[in-house]
Each structure stands twice: as structure tokens, then as C-alpha cells.
Amino acid sequence: MTEFVETLYPDYGQRFTADEILYEQNTGQQHLVIFRNAMLGRVMMLDGVVQTTERDEFVYHEMLTHVPMLAHGRVRRVLIVGGGDGGILREVARHPGVEAITLVEIDQAVIEMSREYFPGHSAGAFDDPRLSVVIEDGAEFMRQGTQTWDLIIVDSTDPVGPGEVLFSESFYACCQKRLSAGGVLVTQNGVPFFQQEEVKQSARLFDALFEDWHFYCAAVPTYVGGNMTLGWASDDPSLRQVGVEVLRERYKEVGLATRYYTPELHKAAFALPAFILEAISN
């Protein structure tokens, strides 16, 4: 039986058995492998790091999408940077008030293979008429044009290889300029127990660029190391203070049925452990 060992950390990792290797290729951008695991279903790895699994993908995708969308309450235009597996797209498309979605993915192969091997991730959302797909480096895309969005979701890999630039000062500054008034930026910021410098760097950059910023947590089992942090940045401080009752009303109006997200969890997710608070305050 084939085994894959995640290579994200040199001294610690996780091992996966592969009952069947479904796809493996060097795409020109990164090494992509998709395999089937008895416990997790289908698993995607990029450059030796787990990106998504069939069993637990809903945690990450629901929290990175519905927290900003329900806090904002009137999102019409959404930009997804990365997210070629379609999971964020699926959750965004569940909001009927959204008028336009732009998905910028650096690697066409990720989209193609996700549609074939992870159809449940997108659940048909790649055929949504509101969607425009752009195959381009996300940082380069943000440097161009003047279009703005109510919500920018950065569903990136970790800050190595093609994903490194998506954690830079220049990229975050571009995001700030491309948000509409009262817009929100949310980002993937790793597992702070092992990737503390990542969240500290984003905190410093957010603080210089945005009036209101913070992080919130979600527990994704295959992102090993405990809760992962999701970045939040906006020029409207009131959005982070929306009450549970309002969130409940919006959740009901949209007609959501989620497996992880709840309005109560939404509020609680912003209550960070002391070690994370200490890291982002220094």
C-alpha cells in the first residue's frame, strides 16, 4: 500500500495511506497528487502538503465564506483568490444576493482535476452564470485594473512556492485598494501553534493597512496542529460586532443549512486563545 507523508514541517507531520492513486502530475506550477484514503475519502496534496479532503472540507469552506458574508449582510460582488477546488465557490454561490463572482486561480489543472475528482466540492458551482474564472497569478491580477469587490476571500496555499506572495505587504495593500466601501478581506493564515510567524506577519501588515482587523479560528482535522487562524480585515469596525440575533436572521433569510458554521460559533470564533492574542499584539 502506498503512503504519503506530509512535508510541511521538517520535524513533525502526518502520514496517509493511499488505497488508490487517482491522479499525479507536475503541472508546471506545482506537484499535484490526488489519492483515496479509507478514512478521509479523496485527498488532494500540492507539493507534499494536504490541501483538502472529502471528509472535512466543509469546516474550512463554510467558515471562510459565511463568517464574512453574514457579517456584511449585503455582499453583491465576491473575489476568490485561489480556491480552484471549488469549495469556497460552492458556499458563496449559496447566497442568492450575490450578483458576480470572480475566481482567480494560478493553476488550471487544479480546477480541472477538482471538477473530475472532487465534484462535491463545487457541487455544480463552476457552471453558475454569475462566475468568471481567470487563470492568472493572484498577486498579478490584484495589481491590475480598478474593479472592486464587497468581499475578497484568499483561499491560498501556505506561504511557500506560488502562495508566498499572497502573504506579502504589496498583495494586502492591493486587496485594501480593491475593496468597496465597507468591504471585507478574509484570508487563510495557517495553524498558529506551528506557524506563528505567519499570523504575526499578517497582523503587522493588517494593522498598517486596515482600520479593523483580527483573526478567527476553525478546527480543520487534516490541517494538523490544532485550530487554524483565518484573517479578517476591513475599514468598517461594525461588521465584526454584528450580534448573534442579526446573524441568525440573515442565516435564515439565505436559507443556509451548514454542517459546521452556526451564528453562535461565528461570534465565538473571534475569541482567540491567549497565546495567539499575545503573538498578534507584539
Key attributes of the depicted protein:
single chain, 282 residues, alpha/beta, four-stranded antiparallel sheet, 13 strands, 29% strand, globular
Tell me the layout of helices and strands:
Blueprint: E1 2-5, E2 15-18, E3 20-26, E4 31-37, E5 41-46, E6 49-53, H1 57-72, E7 77-82, H2 87-93, E8 100-105, H3 108-117, H4 119-122, E9 131-135, H5 138-143, E10 149-155, H6 169-178, E11 179-188, H7 196-209, E12 212-218, E13 228-234, H8 244-254, H9 263-268, H10 274-281
Parallel strand pairs: 7-8, 7-10, 8-9, 10-11
Antiparallel strand pairs: 1-2, 3-4, 4-5, 5-6, 11-13, 12-13
Strand content: 25-35%
Class computed from helices, strands and strand pairing: alpha/beta
Q: Evaluate the radius of gyration.
A: 18 Å
- Count every beta strand, where a strand is a DSSP E run of 2 or more residues: 13
Mean pLDDT: 94
End-to-end gap: 47 Å
Overview of this structure, please?
With about 280 residues, this protein is an alpha/beta fold. About 35% of the residues lie in helices and about 30% in strands. It contains 10 helices and 13 strands. The chain has a 7-stranded mixed β-sheet with strand order 9-8-7-10-11-13-12, with helices on both faces. Strands 3-4-5-6 form a 4-stranded antiparallel β-sheet, with helices on one face. Strands 1-2 form a two-stranded antiparallel ribbon. The chain is globular.
